[in-house]
Structure prediction request, 107 residues.
Amino acid sequence: MNALKEVSDGIIIDLEVNPGSKYTCIPSGYNHWRKRIEVKLSQTAQKGKANEQLIEQIAILFCVPSSTVSIISGAKSSQKSIFIKTISMDFALSVLEEHLNDRCDQH
Prediction:
């Protein structure tokens, strides 16, 4: 998966974020053209609410403290790169592949 990069102390994940969706879904798919994991967030992109929700939901998905997740580029864009400290590429791939095969709850 080209959306993930391993660095010395964690991983970087490239995301395509759609704020203001009816429901939150992480990951909601994979954009092969942009090589980014797609994410749907229920919060709107106002006053950093969607970014806060993204960090919280990524932390929950990977079972890590939210303090280990940070947006390293694209804070004001739908195309973001996030850094997650202390997780391996293998772990990240297994979590994402497991959840990409699930359907998000749409109620």
Q: What stands out?
A: Strands lie at 4-7, 10-18, 25-31, 36-40, 69-73, 79-85.
